[in-house]
Design brief:
112 residues, mainly alpha, 2 helices, coiled coil
Length: 112
């Protein structure tokens, strides 16, 4: 029995565009949620970093001069400074992630 040759058929171009747009919008939604999460983390870290610097300054203001400061005061100041520095480094990492996400969002926009 003879079968007629059937040509490969694709979906309508409009349907392909809609599917592609839906995928891009899904990824953009994830990026938007993650961006908001990163921004909240940065805000929290910034508050803790500021607080650590303020506490270190308070201990400095209420302690003796540098050479006469107690070891406990020096340790407390160093601890606050280390905490603030760790927060600062994390903020730098998070801002790099924001830059990456921003570039991805730009590439995924429907007009891109």
């Amino acid at each position: 029995m003879f079968r007629p040759f059937l040509a490969f058929q694709t979906r309508a171009p409009d349907r392909d565009r809609q599917t592609d747009l839906g995928r891009r919008q899904a990824v953009l939604g994830v990026l938007g949620r993650q961006t908001a999460e990163i921004e909240r983390e940065i805000a929290g870290l910034q508050r803790r970093m500021d607080e650590a610097y303020q506490r270190a300054a308070s201990v400095l203001a209420n302690s003796d001069e540098y050479g006469e400061r107690s070891k406990a005061d020096e340790a407390e100041i160093s601890s606050f400074e280390a905490s603030a520095e760790a927060a600062r480094r994390r903020i730098v990492e998070l801002k790099a992630q924001l830059e990456l996400f921003s570039g991805l969002e730009a590439a995924l926009k429907p007009d891109a």
